[in-house]
Design brief:
The protein is an alpha/beta fold. The chain contains 11 helices and 10 strands.
Length: 285
C-alpha cells in the first residue's frame, strides 16, 4: 500500500515542516486549461519560499502528435527542476489552485523522473489560505539544485498499449473525462469526439472533489465498481494526461502504485486517423 503521508500533506503539517532548518522545496504549479497562465496567480501571492514552475513549458514537452501535454525532454526537465532548486533526495511539495490536477501531474512527472520524495498539498493554495497560513509576493532565488532525472520510474502507456489494455479481459483502461466527452456527445478541445474502444468511463468528480480525496477504502470501492480488480493491470487517460495523472495519484492512494498513465491521452489517440473511435453510453465491467 502507498501511505497517504507519502503522497499528500495537509496545510498545518506543511507549515510545521517549513519552520525546520532544511524545509521541503515548494513548487507552485498553478495552471489553467484556458485563460491566463498560472504565473499571474503566483505573482499575486504564493506560499512563502515557493518557486513557480510552468506545467505547459517546463513539466511537459511541446504539444504535437504525441499529445497536448506529452512527456518532457529529460534534459530540459532536469534543467527546469534544478533551476527551481530541486535537490537529489530532498523532499518536494507541489501545489496548485485547488482542483489538484496540475499538482498531480507535477507529482507524477517528478515521480516518473525518479524523484520519489514528492507530495501534493491537499486542497492546494486555497486550503493553505483557509488554514490562516501566510502568503508572500516575494519571488525567491533558490540555490541551483542537483537533482538527476531518471525517466521511466512510473509506468506509462503509449497508444498501442492503451488499446491492448482497453481490450483485455483482465485489466481496465479508465477514461476520466466527463461522460458527454466519453460518449462523443461533445468535444470542446480535440478534433474528434468519443473514446478508446473498450475504455471504461469514470469521471474525475467520482473519486475527487475540489482537489480533495476521500479515504483509501472509499477510493478502493469506487475503483472496484469501475472494474479495477486487485492484481489486474489498470491505466488511465483523459484529454491530455493532466486529469488522468490525478487518477493515477488516486489509485496510488487506493494502494495501486502500479497504475499506468497514458500520457498522450485522447489528444494523442486522435492524432492518428487510423485509430478506431468508439461512441455511446458508458461501458461497465
Amino acid at each position: 500500500m502507498s501511505g497517504t503521508e507519502d503522497l499528500l500533506v495537509e496545510p498545518d503539517r506543511l507549515a510545521a515542516e517549513l519552520d525546520r532548518a532544511d524545509p521541503p522545496t515548494l513548487l507552485d504549479v498553478r495552471w489553467r486549461l484556458a485563460g491566463e497562465p498560472g504565473r499571474a496567480d503566483y505573482l499575486a501571492g504564493h506560499l512563502p519560499g515557493a518557486v513557480f514552475v510552468d506545467l505547459d513549458t517546463e513539466l511537459c514537452g511541446r504539444p504535437g502528435a504525441a499529445g497536448r501535454h506529452p512527456l518532457p525532454d529529460p534534459a530540459a526537465l532536469q534543467a527546469a527542476l534544478r533551476a527551481a532548486g530541486v535537490r537529489a533526495g530532498h523532499p518536494v511539495v507541489v501545489y496548485d489552485g485547488g482542483d489538484g490536477m496540475s499538482a498531480a501531474r507535477a507529482w507524477w512527472t517528478l515521480r516518473w523522473a525518479g524523484h520519489r520524495p514528492v507530495r501534493v498539498l491537499h486542497g492546494g493554495f486555497p486550503a493553505w489560505v483557509a488554514a490562516g497560513r501566510p502568503v508572500s509576493t516575494e519571488a525567491p532565488a533558490p540555490a541551483p539544485g542537483d537533482v538527476t532525472v531518471t525517466p521511466g520510474e512510473l509506468p506509462v502507456l503509449d497508444a498501442r498499449e492503451a488499446a491492448r489494455l482497453a481490450a483485455a479481459d483482465a485489466g481496465v483502461l479508465l477514461d476520466v473525462r466527463a461522460a458527454p466527452r466519453y460518449r462523443g456527445d461533445t468535444e470542446p478541445i480535440d478534433p474528434v469526439a468519443g473514446h478508446v474502444p473498450g475504455a471504461v468511463n469514470l469521471p474525475a468528480p467520482e473519486y475527487v472533489a475540489e482537489g480533495r480525496f476521500p479515504a483509501a477504502e472509499a477510493l478502493r470501492e469506487r475503483f472496484a465498481a469501475a472494474g479495477v480488480a486487485e492484481g489486474a493491470p489498470v491505466g488511465a487517460y483523459c484529454g491530455s494526461g493532466v486529469t488522468a495523472a490525478q487518477a493515477v495519484l488516486a489509485l496510488h492512494l487506493a494502494g495501486r502504485p502500479d497504475a499506468a498513465l497514458y500520457v498522450g491521452s485522447w489528444s494523442n489517440w486522435v492524432a492518428d486517423p487510423d485509430r478506431p473511435v468508439a461512441t455511446g453510453e458508458t461501458s461497465g465491467r
